[in-house]
Amino acid sequence: MTPHILTRKPRLRPRNFLINDAKGLLQQYPPNCRHIAASPELQSAWKPTRKSPSIYHRRNLSDRKTRQIVEGADLVLDLGGVNLNDITTSAYSAKLDLSRFITVGLNDVRIGDDVIAGVRLADVLAELIKLKPSSSPYRGTPQGLAPVNGKPSDKITMAALYPRYAAFLRAGDTVVLETGSTSPGMTPMTLADGVRVEAQVLWGSIGWATPAAFGVAMADTDRRTVLITGEGSHQLTANDIGAMGRFGANVIVFVLNNSGYMIERALEENPNWTYNDLAPWNFAQLPKALGCSDWYTARVTTLGELDEAMKAARASKTGAYIEIIGGKMDMPPVLAYAHGQLKAMYGDTP
Ligand SMILES: Cc1ncc(C[n+]2csc(CCOP(=O)(O)OP(=O)(O)O)c2C)c(N)n1
Ligand SMILES: [Mg+2]
Questions:
Q1: Which DSSP letter does residue 99 get?
Q2: Which of 13, 17, 134, 305 is most deeply buried (CB count within 10 A of its CB)?
């Protein structure tokens, strides 16, 4: 039998405990049998770094081998109860056989039609972890970062931007990801060991990430907080940049300005529907207007400018704010895939 773990962010215990328990559990199986499938929240907390096991993201985000192993597993241990929807299955491309699932919910365990009630997820994990390991501990296969491409004079494309974000992030950073094209763009990226990721893709309420980054920065001043957001989401809560300045939170902020709600354009029949257009703010001027007079700010349109701004932001002792000008319909790969699958996902819309 080939066991796998499928899990999402449970609220029962601090997430790191559960991740560690689940990792411990995996150690009990031979290396070729240990793979993780996770929802966006947990994927982000458990990035495929050099030391961790390979992850089954959504089908079209995962490498072929991991995909084959998870989709062909005899048993999938689903911790928390994954909601299989258009986003989590990557436009319904995942081939997960639910009859092979054992779902350990917060308060019950489901195996086929049988429900065992009154069992807590944390308690089930605590017992499972006691099982005697059948092999030596897991050793991850080192995974490299995506190569950084493009000439300094090139316009900023998503193909060039996401590998740059990945290369920019380093141990000791906590990156906060906004809903929109940012999350599907960042989720497949391998990051350095020691980078923490915060996201709330399950609820996907836009505007969350800017104040969340403020809170994350205040909660742990030993780490550097990096916010990656789209400009549409940012417009809802950008006032919290002022709060960052007021309380001395030295967050590095990246705002992708792609002239509107791009993820909505990607997922709708009519991308140019007026709902997706925004008031054209001068984003790079916001920090000054909001009282962050000593922040580093930049508005970048080319890769050369972006690379320079990233260096300056990293060197800055105060906060930094970089407005990145992107294409109106330039999508990260997984979103581009979904854009081509609208009929399969949503059928014929009236
Ligand atoms: C409160 C709320 N309103 C609306 C939505 C629908 N929604 C999801 S993503 C998005 C657009 C995000 O645009 P932006 O932040 O500019 O990111 P982009 O996709 O353009 O990179 C919208 C409107 C939502 N998820 N939450
Ligand atoms: Mg946008």
A1: G
A2: 305
DSSP string over 178-212: -TTTHHHHHTT----TT-EEE--TTT--TT-HHHH
213 neighbors 225 (Cβ within 8 angstroms): yes
Ligand 1 pocket member 233 (CB < 6 A): yes
Q: Which ligand 1 atom sits closest to the C-alpha of 231?
A: 16
List C-alpha distances in Å: 115 to 79, 108, 119, 177.
14, 7, 10, 35
Domains in the chain: ranges and CATH: 17-128 (3.40.50.1220), 158-338 (3.40.50.970)
What burial class does residue 134 get, using C-beta atoms within 10 Å of its C-beta: 0-12 exposed, 13-18 middle, 19+ buried? exposed
Per residue in 212-268, pLDDT tens? 999 999 999 999 999 999 999 999 999 999 999 999 999 999 999 999 999 999 999
> From the alpha carbon of 229, which atom of ligand 1 is closest?
15
Query: 309-314 contacts: CB < 8 A, separation 24 or more?
Result: 310/164, 310/168, 313/252, 314/168, 314/252
pTM: 0.80
Whether residue 291 is predicted with pLDDT greater than 70 in this model: the reply is yes
* Residue having the nearest C-alpha atom to atom 6 of ligand 1: 206
Give burial (CB, 10 Å; 0-12/13-18/19+) of 218: middle
